[in-house]
């Protein structure tokens, strides 16, 4: 710990806040050792239990770790430093395929929808006292859930998928609980869980989603929740198939106490069907469950809107807590989504084909060069590599930016994620040759002219 910095405070919350502020400001750097409980207690003139409680709060917030006799230290990447914000420095002219964004050319114009909402609000202003959820949005969402075999139930509207997942977790879990997550998984989710004080156990994935053997081990380890991606899994593009869904439902049925959260990120665009894990023959597989659907990939990330359904108790807890905080998601946004959804502003088969026409040829071109890659659905391709750092650097030298797998994995094999949304078909052979050369320098001469 730098000599210039001294931890201050008399209460546990004050001590924890002082340390967290120092970490956020860079005054205490990642990996810095913290004083022992007794040493800091003596310095501050407080009971060691007070310092112990402060350290526990920091562990639950994902700021520090405690390693037995080695003491406590600042995490090398504290929870308030999201993985996706770790910069990737690219030279001028390089193509950035690390971003994870949908193709801007495939997103609808918001102009007509927002103008229609503006006309509606001119006639009937949106003021306090309205229901939190727009009825037309609820009806649309409910119809689509029903068509996918889910039972009629309450609908909540949140500010995006991550907000929905966070609210469901907070409704049912406590700090210290163990959560099963895919490995590799969405980086934002991996950041969120330690920030909530939750511990994770990874479940390996293949093209069909979570592997049953790994899922069985995770469920046997005492997890209290399982977060899965139905389709368009980020970063691997996995999609839960019919047989895999049967196998996972069987495992979950043996642990009905587990909270199941399904993030159906590909809803509306996926060219693979939705196979719910939460339902079997019309009956819930687990006591508490939620299915989340965002409009980020369909209409644009900045709309910040998702819907969720689930068991009544969980959804009502989410809605009740929301009323005490943010209150509701903007009705302007809700109504805009209604107009976009109802007017079929997106040619969904065409957009789905747009991504497939980039993802699938890239995977084939890599395979022709001896490089295995994955991407059954969605806008990303996952490539296992021997050495992540050298592969990222080698690709940068060839003019491509790839997202390092460290952003997405905990125990999974190292790899890279490439987002295909900004690629043109003519880019694919060049990119495939450059990836192959980055992984196997002897192939460097194979790049097309």
N-C termini distance = 54 Å
Give the structural class: alpha/beta
Let me know the largest β-sheet: 8 strands, mixed
Query: Mean of residue pLDDT?
Result: 91
| Strand residues, percent | 5-15%
Categorize the overall geometry.
globular
**Could you list the spans in which at least 5 consecutive residues all have pLDDT below 50?**
none
Q: Care to give the gist of this entry?
A:
This protein is of the alpha/beta class. 39% of the residues lie in helices and 15% in strands.
Question: What attributes characterize this protein structure?
Answer:
single chain, 449 residues, alpha/beta, eight-stranded mixed β-sheet, three-stranded antiparallel β-sheet, 39% helix
Please render the helix and strand layout as text:
Blueprint: H1 12-25, H2 37-44, H3 48-60, E1 64-66, E2 72-74, E3 95-96, H4 111-123, H5 135-147, E4 155-158, H6 161-172, E5 178-183, H7 187-195, E6 199-206, E7 209-210, H8 212-220, E8 225-229, H9 242-253, E9 259-263, E10 279-280, E11 283-284, E12 289-294, H10 296-299, E13 306-310, H11 312-324, H12 331-342, H13 348-368, E14 380-384, H14 388-397, E15 400-401, E16 403-404, E17 415-419, H15 427-439
């Amino acid at each position: 710990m730098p000599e210039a910095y001294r931890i201050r405070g008399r209460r546990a919350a004050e001590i924890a806040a002082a340390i967290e502020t120092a970490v956020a400001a860079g005054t205490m750097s990642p990996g810095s050792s913290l004083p022992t409980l007794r040493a800091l207690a003596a310095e501050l003139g407080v009971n060691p239990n007070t310092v112990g409680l402060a350290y526990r709060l920091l562990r639950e917030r994902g700021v520090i770790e405690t390693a037995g006799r080695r003491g406590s230290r600042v995490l090398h990447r504290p929870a308030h430093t999201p993985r996706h914000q770790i910069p990737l420095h690219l030279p001028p002219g390089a193509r950035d395929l690390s971003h994870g964004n949908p193709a801007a050319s495939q997103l609808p114009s918001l102009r007509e929808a927002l103008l229609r909402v503006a006309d509606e609000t001119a006639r009937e202003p949106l003021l306090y006292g309205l229901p939190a959820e727009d009825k037309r949005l609820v009806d649309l969402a409910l119809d689509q859930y029903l068509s996918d075999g889910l039972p009629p139930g309450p609908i909540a509207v949140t500010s995006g998928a991550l907000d929905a997942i966070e609210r469901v977790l907070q409704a049912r879990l406590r700090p210290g609980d163990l959560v099963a997550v895919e490995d590799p998984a969405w980086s934002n989710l991996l950041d969120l869980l330690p920030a909530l004080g939750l511990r994770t156990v990874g479940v390996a994935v293949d093209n069909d989603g979570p592997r049953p053997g790994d899922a069985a081990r995770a469920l046997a380890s005492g997890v209290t929740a399982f977060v899965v991606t139905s389709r368009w899994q980020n970063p691997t593009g996995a999609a839960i198939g019919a047989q895999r869904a049967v196998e996972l439902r069987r495992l979950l049925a043996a642990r009905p106490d587990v909270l199941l959260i399904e993030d159906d990120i590909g809803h509306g665009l996926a060219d693979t069907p939705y196979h719910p894990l939460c339902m079997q023959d019309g009956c819930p597989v687990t006591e508490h469950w939620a299915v989340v659907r965002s409009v980020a990939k369909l209409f644009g990330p900045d709309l910040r809107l998702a819907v969720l359904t689930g068991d009544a108790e969980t959804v009502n807890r989410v809605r009740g807590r929301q009323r005490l905080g943010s209150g509701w998601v903007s009705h302007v946004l809700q109504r805009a989504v209604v107009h976009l959804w109802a007017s079929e502003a997106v040619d969904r088969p065409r957009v789905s084909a747009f991504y497939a026409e980039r993802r699938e040829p890239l995977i084939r071109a890599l395979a022709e060069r001896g490089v295995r890659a994955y991407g059954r659905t969605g806008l990303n391709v996952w490539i296992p590599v021997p050495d992540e750092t050298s592969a990222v650097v080698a690709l940068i030298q060839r003019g491509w930016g790839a997202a390092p797998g460290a952003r997405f994995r905990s125990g999974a094999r190292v790899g890279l994620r490439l987002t295909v949304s900004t690629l043109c078909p003519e880019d694919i052979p060049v990119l495939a040759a450059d990836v192959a050369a980055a992984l196997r320098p002897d192939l460097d001469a194979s790049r097309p002219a």
